[in-house]
Amino acid sequence: KMSSDNDYVRVCSTSEIPIGGGTRKTIGTREIAIFRTNRGKFYCLDAHCYHAGGPLEMGTIVDIEGLGDHSRPCVVCPWHAYKIALDTGEGVYEGIDPFTKPYKKKVKSKGVQQRTHKIKIEGNNVYVSLSTEGQIESDYYSSDRFKEIMTGQGITISFSQPDEKNTSSSSSSTTNTDNSTNSSSSASSTTEETKTNQNNSEQQQSEQQQSEQKQSEQKQQPQQSTTTTNQNVKTEK
Asked: Exposed, middle or buried, 217 (CB in 10 Å: 0-12/13-18/19+)?
C-alpha cells in the first residue's frame, strides 16, 4: 500500500515497533530496521550493521552526548557494540587525545557508515522511502556478492513484501531476522578467515626472506676470513 507520495511504501503499523527498540522489515530485497525512541521519534536504517552484519533491530538505543549541541539517539549493535547515530547513520566512537593531559574521552564520528531511509507516520501506519544515492558501507549486506557468499555457505535468504496484516508482517519479520543473523555471522567468519590467511601468507614470505638473507651473510663471512688469513701469511714471509 502506498501513501500519498509514491516513493513511500507502507511497511507496518506503529504498534509493531516497541518503544525504545526496533523491528526488522523488508522492502523488495532490502532488509531495514525501524526504531522508535523513548521520546516517540521514528528512524529507519539498513538492518545489518556496517561492521560485520549484526542485527541492529536487536540492539539497544542510547542517547550520546558530544555530537553537536544536543544528545543524539544511537543504536548499539548487539554483536560488537558498534554505535550508530539513528538520524544520520554515522559511526560513533569515544576517542582519547594522547597529547592532552589529563586524558579525556571525546565522542567522535567516523562519518556516515550506515544507510538511513526516509520514514513518516500517517495515523498508525509507518511508511518508508528507500535511499539509494551513493555508496555506503552497509550496502554490502544488500549486495549480490553477499548473497553469493551466503549461497556458498549453504544459507538461503528469503525476502517478502510488507504485509497489510500485522500478524503476517510480524511472522515474516521473525523469519528474516533469524535468516539474516545466521547469514551475517557466516559472512563475518568468512571475512575473518580470509584476513587470517592473508596475514599468515605475508608472515611466511617475510620469514623466508629473512632466512635467505642470513644464509647469504653466512656465505660471505668465511670468504672474508680466508682473505684476511692469506694476507697475514704473506706479511710474515
From this structure: exposed
Q: What region does 186 belong to: left with phi over 0, alpha with psi -120 to 50, or beta?
A: alpha
pLDDT tens figures, 160-199: 445 444 333 333 333 343 444 444 444 455 444 544 454 5
53 to 3, 31, 119, 135, 148: CA distances (angstroms):
30, 11, 22, 16, 15
pLDDT tens per residue across span 57-106 = 999 999 998 777 778 999 999 999 999 999 999 999 988 878 888 887 88
For the full predicted model, state whether its pTM sits above 0.70: no
